[in-house]
Design brief:
- By secondary structure, this protein is of the alpha+beta class.
- The chain is built from one helix and eight strands, in the order αββββββββ.
- The strands form two sheets. Strands 1, 2, 3 and 6 form a four-stranded antiparallel sheet that branches.
- β4 and β5 form a beta hairpin.
- The longest helix is centred in the N-terminal third of the chain and has 24 residues.
């Protein structure tokens, strides 16, 4: 009967270690993107950042959805300089897009770290 309490304690210690590792590796910064908006030739994407200020490139690749299984790339590797600051901000890309459905790929790359990728987002937009 003495083994049961030891197994329970060992299980709790293992669970605490796993939770500690998850917290350690998730880090303290996050970057999220809101819904993209296209208006008057400008694609605007709101972002929320929780971390130290960081100079970045926002790299865009945009595809027009021709059919369910077919798309055409209309913007390849267009980049915009930016600085991430804690809180809400926006990134803007001036581009002429005709009415239709688009898939927007946005990659966020560090400028100081040899263009190390921080994160990426994929969004669908509809232009009428």
């Amino acid at each position: 009967m003495e083994r049961k309490p030891l197994l329970i304690i060992a299980g709790l210690v293992c669970l605490a270690a796993v939770i500690g590792l998850i917290i350690l590796f998730t880090g303290g910064t996050s970057l999220t993107a809101g819904t993209s908006v296209y208006e008057d030739g400008v694609l605007t994407i709101p972002v929320h950042y929780n971390g130290e200020p960081k100079d970045v490139w926002f790299l865009y690749n945009i595809f027009r959805q021709d059919t369910l299984l077919s798309s055409t790339q209309v913007c390849e590797s267009e980049s915009v300089l930016g600085t991430l600051i804690q809180g809400d901000s926006v990134t803007e890309l001036q581009i002429d897009l005709s009415p239709g459905e688009y898939k927007v790929f946005i990659y966020v790359l560090e400028r100081d770290e040899g263009t190390k990728r921080i994160t990426g987002f994929i969004q669908n937009i509809q232009i009428r």
